[in-house]
């Protein structure tokens, strides 16, 4: 209701490169404290033609993003285990900022630990990969994250929530909402077919472009973050509703 607005030997290193839909190649900010891993990842990215900026700490990355004349990056690849400000806090600060809150973020973790993955997703990461990861895999994830940040078409209104599919903006009762690419893509996918139930596997394919299935944590975390922004009361959703045993649907409102 209106009235309240509430992701040769160097290919085994931890990164690879994307391709973008804009004329220039995308600019990747690589945040990794291990110099050997960071250098190898940067080399792989540059071999694929991408512009790369690197940071060894979370503080350095935030300074590059938020300082005067900040880096015009298209996506961040963020290691979780950083000295000083760790990757969780860096991601939270990016999401809570104003100018970079919609920046796509892929987190890198050296462990497949469930707690790390869930914390990273809840901090606002769009996707995650577990190191070591091959260059083709990470490149595919980066391309998918960038696709999620690109326009679709049309403008729809649902009980006070306005979704502009061409302009990629969302407003709630006239107040603009800053949604990161994954959450926006998720909302676009669900709201395009109000009332239709989507399984988590369907959403992984259509929103994340994942070929592998079974990791529902990515979907559930993104739904939770989206609800926190668009619902009047996140625990009693009107827009993105759970259909127990099946998945999620948009509405009934």
How large a portion of the residues is in β-strands, by DSSP E? 15-25%
Instruction: Summarize the biggest pleated sheet.
Output: 5 strands, parallel
Q: How does the overall form come out from the CA principal axes?
A: globular
In angstroms, what separates the terminal alpha carbons?
A: 10 Å
Poorly predicted segments:
4-23
Structural class: alpha/beta
Helix content: 25-40%
Order of helices and strands: EHEHEHEHEHEEEEHHHEE
Total beta strand runs: 11
| Count of helical regions | 8
- Residue-averaged pLDDT, rounded? 83
In the sheet with the most strands, the strands line up as: 2-1-3-4-5
| C-alpha-based Rg, rounded | 18 Å
Structure description:
The chain is α/β, with parallel strands linked by helices and 253 residues long. 35% of the residues lie in helices and 19% in strands. The chain contains eight helices and eleven strands. Strands 2-1-3-4-5 form a five-stranded parallel beta sheet, with helices on both faces. It has a four-stranded antiparallel beta sheet with strand order 6-7-8-9, with no helix packed on it. It has a two-stranded antiparallel ribbon with strand order 10-11. Helix 4 links the parallel strand 4 and strand 5 (127-130). The model is unreliable at 4-23 (pLDDT under 50).
């Amino acid at each position: 209701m209106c009235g309240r607005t509430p992701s040769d030997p160097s290919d085994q290193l931890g990164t690879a490169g994307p391709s973008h839909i804009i004329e220039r190649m995308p600019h990747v900010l690589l945040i990794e404290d291990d110099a050997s891993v960071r250098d190898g990842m940067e080399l792989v990215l540059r071999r694929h033609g991408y512009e790369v900026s690197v940071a060894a700490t979370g503080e350095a990355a935030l300074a590059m993003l938020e300082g005067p004349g900040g880096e015009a990056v298209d996506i961040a690849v963020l290691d979780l285990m950083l000295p000083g400000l760790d990757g969780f806090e860096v991601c939270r600060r990016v999401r809570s900022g104003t100018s970079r809150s919609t920046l796509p973020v892929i987190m890198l973790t050296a462990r497949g630990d469930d707690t790390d993955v869930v914390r990273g997703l809840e901090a606002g990461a769009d996707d995650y990969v577990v190191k070591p990861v091959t260059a083709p895999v990470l490149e595919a994830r980066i391309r998918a994250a960038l696709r999620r940040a690109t326009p679709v078409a049309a403008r729809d209104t649902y009980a006070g929530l306005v979704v502009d599919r061409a302009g990629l903006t969302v407003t709630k009762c006239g107040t603009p909402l800053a949604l990161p690419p994954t959450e926006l893509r998720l909302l676009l996918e669900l709201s395009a077919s109000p009332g239709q139930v989507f399984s988590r596997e369907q959403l992984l394919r259509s929103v994340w472009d994942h070929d592998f299935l079974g990791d529902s944590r990515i979907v559930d975390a993104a739904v939770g973050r989206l609800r926190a922004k668009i619902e009047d009361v996140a625990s009693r959703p009107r827009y993105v509703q759970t259909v127990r045993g099946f998945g999620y649907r948009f509405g009934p409102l």
